[in-house]
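[SOLVED] Predicted holo structure with pyridoxal-5'-phosphate

Edit: marking solved, answer below. Original request kept for reference. I posted the sequence and ligand SMILES and asked for the 3D complex as structure tokens.
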Amino acid sequence: MDYPEIKKYCDEKQVTLVAVSKTKPAEEILTVYSMGQRIFGENKVQELLQKSDQLPKDIQWHLIGHLQSNKVKQVVPAVTMIHSVDSPNLLREVHLEAKKINRTIDVLLQIHIAQEETKFGLSTEEAKEIMNGQLENLTSINIRGLMGIASFTTNEEQVRNEFRSLKTFFDQMKNQKRNLDFSILSMGMSGDYKIAIEEGSNMVRIGSAIFGSR
Ligand SMILES: *Cc1c(COP(=O)(O)O)cnc(C)c1O
């Protein structure tokens, strides 16, 4: 359990730590909770809902995995942030469900930065279109920033370049929008969070380095 060390590292760099608890039982989450962690990330809607039911109510749950339209209604009341919005449709649906329950949900647009085909996410062009679109109508969502997953490779230079290009795009969008709320860059996992932070990440999603391998 390297939680205290990782937490200290993130605090020193002023980076928000999302502890990724997917596949881990409630008792292990409680251990990390008791050390002060309040933000936990899950990638599956059912699992997130079960855990949010069982665990302390002051936990902030972040959905970090792909979200299907038919699960939006269930998940919206349980989360404070969704990292994985990857279509205009999904954005609208999250807005509508959040509106119904009188809440505003923070969302990140997931950008495809890896070379692998399998990763979800928007191209920078698609994200630009969304950001330049009719967002005024989507009053119950707040686009807080971007999320990206680097290639799963031992080639550090490639990983670094992917993070760097996302940071460049993030800065572009931020300057263009001049919107103070657009301030979160979620990049970095157990294997690459130090590189991600060096390249400008301010939110990391760390699972196995905290909870052990899955
Ligand atoms: C599982 C997962 C993580 C954490 O992965 P680790 O390598 O265990 O740190 C981060 N982000 C997403 C989107 C994930 O699905």
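OP edit: The two ends are 13 Å apart (CA to CA). Thanks to everyone who chimed in.
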